[in-house]
């Protein structure tokens, strides 16, 4: 039977129950509890206060017989249990069979280790060969690089020496304090005129002879244009 | 997640184990698994291993069927597992253990009750004959 919380609450209050704590009512689904044991802290009911519960009557001969049977049963069970325990011990980890098994396992392990070591040796040999090969290859590469470097150095040195040689040759025509007067005189003697004109066909007319008629046609110079594709 | 009924529970060392019934029937239809589990655990917590079944209601031939894996029972007893009283009685009736005194007791009580009932019946019939 379902009821709302408010309908149940006043009925239970006079029983001395703290409804929320004792009955743990859930507001979603409430089921009526018609009978519930009294809480521990409530005293014995008045009607039950001087009630003495009757002692159970045990048949004496039955009791003696049961005691005898129980004693016998316990003794027998103890021996049965000991037997099973012994059996378990014999078949478990410390038994002969188990020991033999572990011994076999150990031997197998040793054999495996030996095989593994052999394999390792083979692999080590192969590795050594491979490594030496790589080393040699690297050596060769480095040697080639060194040679190339040396050659480059040589070339550069030669270039520099060539430059120095050219410069030395050129030094013969340098204008120094000794021959500056002569150079000035030479310059004065031979004046250079940089003025010139060009006609549509690319003929050059030097200096002040800008009239085409001033220059005979066989002495005409032509402009040299770089990169011109004719 | 539901536990598998047939075992798989964690085996804890140094704790007492027990061979006992675990009720797996429904309302008004008991059916028991015979299981090994921790002694202090609830009946429906995960069991370590299932050793058999017990159907307390008789079948059409009025037989109450028990299935037991005796090999494993031996193993667990050897490991020091305890047995609950009902299981001990059942194993006694199986002939695996000595017969439990409670079995003797219920037997003689039943016998006594039958005798008294027969006597009462006889007295009643004699009374009817006299009148």
TrEMBL record, chain A:
Q: Where in the cell is it found?
A: Mitochondrion
Identify the domain of life: Eukaryota
Establish whether keyword Ribosomal protein is in the entry. Answer: yes
UniProtKB keywords: Coiled coil, Mitochondrion, Ribonucleoprotein, Ribosomal protein, Transit peptide
Q: Where along the sequence do coiled-coil regions lie? A: 147-177
Query: Which InterPro entries has this protein been placed in?
Result: Ribosomal_mS26
Q: What is its main location?
A: mitochondrion
GO CC field: mitochondrial small ribosomal subunit
Q: Does the keyword Mitochondrion apply?
A: yes
Question: Family, per the entry?
Answer: Belongs to the mitochondrion-specific ribosomal protein mS26 family.
Query: In its UniProt entry, what is this protein called?
Result: Small ribosomal subunit protein mS26
What organism is this sequence from? Zootermopsis nevadensis (Dampwood termite)
TrEMBL record, chain B:
One record GO biological process: mitochondrial translation
Location in or out of the cell = Mitochondrion
TM ranges: none
* GO molecular function annotation: structural constituent of ribosome
Keyword presence, Ribonucleoprotein: yes
Presence of keyword Ribosomal protein: yes
Q: Which NCBIfam families match?
A: S16
HAMAP family cross-referenced by the UniProt entry? Ribosomal_bS16
In the record, the note on similarity to other proteins reads: Belongs to the bacterial ribosomal protein bS16 family.
| Protein name (Swiss-Prot/TrEMBL) | Small ribosomal subunit protein bS16m
Q: Which organism is it from?
A: Zootermopsis nevadensis
